[in-house]
Amino acid sequence: MQILAEAEDLPKTANIKTQLISLWTAPVFGVVLLIAFLAFPGFFPPMSPDMTAEQVARFYSDHTAMIRFSMITFNLCGVMLLPFFMVIVIQMKRMATQSHIFAYCYLTAAVSGATMFALADIFYLTAAFRPDRSPSWSCSSTTWPG
Amino acid sequence: MFPRWVGYYAIGTALAMAPAAGAAVFATGPLAWNGVVSFWLRNGAFALFVIVMFVVLRNVLHRQAVEEGVARVSSTISAQTSLSAKVADNGRTPRAGKRDVWLVFWIVPAFYTAFGVIFFALARVMPPPRPDVTTDQMVHFFHAHGLTIKIGFGVLVLIVGGAGAANGIVVYHMKRMTVGSVMAYAYLGSMSIGALPGCLLVAFCFLTAVYRPGRDRQVLALLYDLGLLSYVGSLGCFTTAYFAFAVAILYDRNNIFPKWLAYVSIWQIVTEVLAVPVFVSKAGPFAWNGSIAFWMGTVIFGFWLSCVIVFLMKANERQPVDEPPLD
User: Fold this and answer.
1) CA-CA distance, A75 to A117, in Å (whole number)?
2) What average pLDDT does chain B have?
3) What is the mean pLDDT of residues B162-191?
4) Contact B240/A47, CB-based, under 8 Å?
5) What are phi and psi of B26, to 5 degrees?
6) Can you spell out the DSSP letters for A68-117?
7) What CA–CA distance (Å, rounded) separates B55 from B234?
């Protein structure tokens, strides 16, 4: 087992390094997610709940490619924001509170939020999978606002 | 740790995002899902939170690095001796480890064996039925396999906690690494996310499909697509988990897991990216039943899982019985 000669090699530094990596995943993937957000044809303006089934079906068949591009990007990269929130959890554990309970509540809350995000992408992509699907069944609800 | 205003800011963000729940009630106006409050305010507040917290956390991490830099000068000697004591008896001690950790360990192969039986033999999801079929053929699939789907997925929803135990023991050993806990929590969180769209959604879609015999054919077709696309196409959650696992292993100085396992995990990330075309292709190697998007990913996952189980066992054996509890 090697002797750790330099102070920089001590294990504690890796603690900061991994947190910095997690911190920087936020802006890097944030830019990617912003591009996907802008690319999705249904956010500017956001699709109205008043749209009829035919309008929704037409939306999915007219914009299939961009819907797939943006939602696949969200699917692949959306959860990469989670390490950023885990840095918050780690820092909450360093607080002088009576226990770490709030840190763990924060952890599970972040996981719940990201789960909704992951589910929503798959619903959009399923609706766009067969653009010739009968209109009444293309009206799969978006869970995005959830 | 954080200045007080961060607490008030967090409350403010929560208040800005909470009214979006009105989207479940209102179909028009600012609270509808496309309204100013439920969409723009809610998403804007979230994005602003990430930006503000990024800046706050950068300062906090800088301070932590400085504080621990001061602390490590005085604790250099004790850190080195405790670290060498932890790793020194590499393979020379007989099977050690803690009994409760061993108990959780044996859940892992037991659960994944049951998982294999359910997904391969009973539910017929592995290999998945084809995407390039007519509605009639989809309906026929559910009729033909209704009973085994009910038994298999019915058992799955009962035992799926085994996946939680499997993720938990990996997180436990990741916390014994020298890299701190952030990657362990990222692994924990992203695997937990993956359990819903990546495992349970196909179970519930298929169970719903076979629940009532005379169900509308278009509903069956939708459940078929949704279940299989979510099962094969849940990519981001596992990508993040493998990323956290790989980074933690590569930086770890306690060598809890071997370095090459990090590269297998990176290989896993590649298979997730290669599965992206399942949302587009209905036939060929990149369809959800394709040789690359499905089979290659499954084989590499099987290899990765076997390695993880073996190295969890080795990590258990090398762990001293009297190691203090983790933070």
Assistant:
1) 8
2) 88
3) 94
4) no
5) -95, 140
6) HHHHHHHHHHGGGGHHHHHHHHHHHHTS--SSSHHHHHHHHHHHHHHHHH
7) 31
Do A18 and B190 make contact, defined as CB atoms within 8 angstroms? no
Count of CB pairs separated by less than 8 Å, A with B:
225
- In 3D space, the residue among A74, A72, A80 whose CA is nearest the CA of residue A28 turns out to be A80
- Sorting pLDDT into bands at 50, 70 and 90, what band is A4? very low
The domain segmentation of chain A, as residue ranges, is 18-138
A51 in B contact zone (CB under 8 Å): no
The mean pLDDT value for B23-40 works out to: 82
For the four alpha carbons of B55, B56, B58 and B63, in that order, the dihedral sign comes to positive
pLDDT tops 60 at residue A18: yes
Count of C-beta atoms within a 10 Å radius of residue B282: 16
Contacts of A81 in chain B (CB under 8 A): 50
The reply to whether residue B197 touches residue A14, judged by beta carbons under 8 angstroms, is: no
Cβ-defined contact of B1 to A91 (cutoff 8 Å): yes
pTM of the model: 0.86
Candidate from B87, B90, B186 with C-beta closest to A82: B186
pLDDT for B208 beyond 80: yes
> Out of B38, B72, B185, whose CB is closest to A89?
B185
pLDDT-based confidence at residue B203 (cuts at 50, 70, 90): very high
* Contact at CB, A115 and B219, closer than 8 angstroms: no
Which residues, in sequence order, are CB contacts of B164 under 8 Å at separation 6+?
B192, B195
End-to-end CA separation in angstroms for chain A: 51
pLDDT in tens, B65-90: 887 776 666 555 454 545 444 444 44
Intra-chain end-to-end CA distance of chain B, in Å:
18
Q: Which two tokens stand for residue B295?
A: 């089979």
Which residue of chain B comes nearest to A96, CA vs CA?
B1
Residue pair A7/B72 in contact by the 8 Å Cβ criterion:
yes
Question: Which residues, other chains included, contact B291 with Cβ-Cβ below 8 Å and sequence gap of 6+?
Answer: B285
Q: What is the mean pLDDT of residues B46-70?
A: 85
d(CA A47, CA A68): 16
pLDDT of residue A42: 86
Q: Which residue has the higher pLDDT, B6 or B95?
A: B6
Q: Is the peptide bond before B127 cis (omega within 30 degrees of 0)?
A: yes
Beta bridge partners of A43: A46
